[in-house]
Amino acid sequence: MSGDPLALYVHWPFCVSKCPYCDFNSHVREAVDQDAWRDAILADLAHEAKLLPGRRLTSIFFGGGTPSLMDPATVDAIIAAATAHWETAERLEVTLEANPNSVETDRFADLARAGVNRLSLGLQSFDDEALRFLGRAHSAREGFRALEIAQKNFRRVSFDLIYALPGDSEASWSASVAQALSLGTSHLSLYQLTIEPGTRFSSMVARGELEPLDTDAAAALYELTDAMTSAAGVPCYEISNYARPGQESRHNLTYWRYGDYAGVGPGAHGRRLNSRTVRHRKPENFLSAVARNGHGIAEEEILSPFQAADEALVMGLRLREGVDAERIAERFGLASVVDWERVERLIRSGHLARDGGRIALTAAGRLLLDHILGEIASVEPKALAVAS
Ligand code: SF4
Hints:
Elements: E1 5-12, H1 34-51, E2 56-64, H2 72-85, E3 87-98, H3 102-105, H4 108-114, E4 118-124, H5 128-133, H6 140-153, E5 156-163, H7 170-182, E6 187-192, H8 200-206, H9 215-231, E7 236-238, E8 241-243, H10 250-256, E9 261-264, E10 269-272, E11 275-279, H11 283-293, E12 297-302, H12 305-316, E13 323-324, H13 325-331, H14 340-348, E14 352-355, E15 358-361, H15 363-366, H16 369-376, H17 384-387
Parallel strand pairs: 1-2, 1-9, 2-3, 3-4, 4-5, 5-6
Antiparallel strand pairs: 6-8, 7-8, 10-11, 11-12, 13-15, 14-15
Helix pairs in contact: 1-2, 1-11, 2-4, 7-9
Bound molecules: iron/sulfur cluster.
């Protein structure tokens, strides 16, 4: 609808090397033709803009891959095009993900001039040995330097750490969290290492060369993180994200609150006007699709009310504020989106809390998100028309 908020995700698919835990759409190429890529992404963006006239742009997120390897002029051109296609919200949030390599840090000032006002830095660890284990192309020292330069250039800075690595202990991780909290950013993303199918780590686990940290130890580290960040005034607002109040990622909140977002660039996902879109993943296929069709869409599917409601529940429950299950049901014309009897049972066991139609995970529940989702959304909701 005209004036409705819209977020924009732009995927840059290239990295200098492939990390062994990574299942993102990232590719290593010897050379990248920045002009060709700028033109292709601009064409893909223009396609989305044509379908979404009159919307109000609230955020742009450059993700990857490694978007800090983009030429700042390319970033500039994409921001300029997006803000010409759509009217912008008063405080347009423009985030870019960056790695701490020097070639990227040298670009921070130009990226800020291009309009990026929030940087999300992939530090991943403060420890060189852990960085080597994670296959990262930077050292801890480079990480600190990149953070310092980022904080000089961007008003809002966040960084990521990965924990629950094999051998992590409460003592080592609490020292890292304390250090993270002392660095003065208002947002942190703290992810547990997960072994994703198809990654190098997954083959190593299968061969017995890597033993993941056991789930109880990982859960203890999660609880420790929760306690330390809350005490420091940077509480968890989503399973793995922590922020001072008001400093949450507005872009990611759009996903979790089930707002519309256009997704452009290779492999980008989007959800707009009740449809889900997926772009071609492989960079070369994306370029030929844009040349052929004027956009990079590989799949487009209209979501059924049940699919949409289920997705809204899955996304919303990740948030500490939880999700209004009654409003979701109403929005998609369903009698119900959760099995309330099972919800009540999980409230009694201390895993969920309820306030009217809104349900939220408790701290204990956050450790069991997938299991709880399976429990409460296991009954397909009936359409109102059928129920009445
Ligand atoms: S830098 Fe990020 S996107 Fe690129 S391979 Fe490593 S984890 Fe994946």
